[in-house]
């Protein structure tokens, strides 16, 4: 299973994952221009790194995994996600959906298209999410 995950991540990276990962990082740099955007910028870099190698990991709600509410999973997180969606999220989602359509054209690209659609959903509201391994997500608690 680890070999398949490695091969899928390698193919993903070479066949376009690097482009969307860089798009996330560029969005993060834009967010860091203002001090107010730093929380969004941090999320962009975490999710951008996840976008480079998404197989074997997933995004989950941070409150669900830690069992503790925080600023990103409450009302301020919701407001932050609305601002994010309007300014940057919609554009990253469009990029992922476009990439998914291109991947769906080929049979072999379907697993990549599914990953792009998952990433498109994450790009709509990333605040309050955390990236964990599939094993950690299955147990329902963050192990680290």
Automatic annotation (TrEMBL):
Q: Does the keyword Cell membrane apply?
A: yes
Identify the species of origin. Answer: Aeromonas cavernicola
Q: What positions does the domain Inner membrane component occupy?
A: 7-57, 79-129
UniProt keyword list: Cell inner membrane, Cell membrane, Membrane, Transmembrane, Transmembrane helix
Q: Where are the transmembrane segments?
A: 7-26, 32-53, 74-93, 99-121
InterPro entries reported in the protein's UniProt record: Inner_membrane_protein (IPR052937), UCP028777 (IPR031308), YccF (IPR005185)
Q: Where in the cell is it found?
A: Cell inner membrane
Instruction: Report the GO terms under cellular component.
Output: plasma membrane
Q: How does it sit in the membrane?
A: Multi-pass membrane protein
Q: Which domain of life is it from?
A: Bacteria
Could you tell me what this protein is called? Inner membrane protein YccF
